[in-house]
Amino acid sequence: MTNRLSSEELRQLIEAAKEARSRAYIPYSGFGVGAALLDGNGHIHYGCNVENAAYGPTNCAERTAMFRAVADGHAPRSFRGMAVVADTPGPVSPCGTCRQVMAELCGPDMPVWLTSMKGDVTETTVSALLPGAFLLNADEAAGAFSKGEPTA
Ligand SMILES: O=c1ccn([C@H]2C[C@H](O)[C@@H](CO)O2)c(=O)[nH]1
């Protein structure tokens, strides 16, 4: 595995996830989640869950972070790691939809740190979170994107 995070980078990524969680828009569940995604340029993309009165349109923290990063011009599968945090008894467990999106946009080997507000930290990978993910030539798909300059 190339380009592993230093312990300081990991500390900052987890702090960023906590900061992102403080921005969660959660009038219905009251359950805030934060995510932080580190790109290849060392920039951290923040994600929080954003809920909706119709419930279905709710976006999880993990997907918010990934979609923001791609929208800001970062190529799918160019990311170095993601941290996720919630106020859970143990490390937070991402939903199936977010695991599927991670498989496409982050790639199988990217590390994911599942954490809790009280300090649990478990390291896993995208492929461990979703073995046998459904993908349609995702490597080529990722390469076809992000031709613009990143804006953040
Ligand atoms: O990994 C997860 C799991 C849940 N949620 C959000 C969705 C919803 O707003 C709230 C309760 O499910 O938590 C996330 O953001 N990430």
UniProtKB/TrEMBL annotation:
Residues the record lists as binding Zn(2+): 60, 95, 98
Gene3D superfamilies per the UniProt record, alphabetical: Cytidine Deaminase, domain 2
Keywords of this entry: Hydrolase, Metal-binding, Zinc
Family, as annotated: Belongs to the cytidine and deoxycytidylate deaminase family.
Positions that bind substrate: 49-55
Stated name of the protein: Cytidine deaminase
NCBIfam families (UniProt xref): cyt_deam_tetra, PRK05578.1
EC class (word): hydrolase
One cellular-component annotation, GO: cytosol
Top-level division of the source organism's lineage: Bacteria
CDD domains tied to this protein: cytidine_deaminase
PROSITE patterns: CYT_DCMP_DEAMINASES_1, CYT_DCMP_DEAMINASES_2
Function: This enzyme scavenges exogenous and endogenous cytidine and 2'-deoxycytidine for UMP synthesis.
Cofactor(s) for this UniProt protein: Zn(2+)
Catalytic site: 62 (proton donor)
Catalytic activity line of the entry: cytidine + H2O + H(+) = uridine + NH4(+); 2'-deoxycytidine + H2O + H(+) = 2'-deoxyuridine + NH4(+)
GO MF terms held by the record: cytidine deaminase activity; identical protein binding; zinc ion binding
Chain segments annotated as coiled-coil in the UniProt record: none
InterPro entries: APOBEC/CMP_deaminase_Zn-bd, CMP_dCMP_dom, Cyt/Deoxycyt_deaminase, Cyt_deam_tetra, Cytidine_deaminase-like
CMP/dCMP-type deaminase domain residues: 8-137
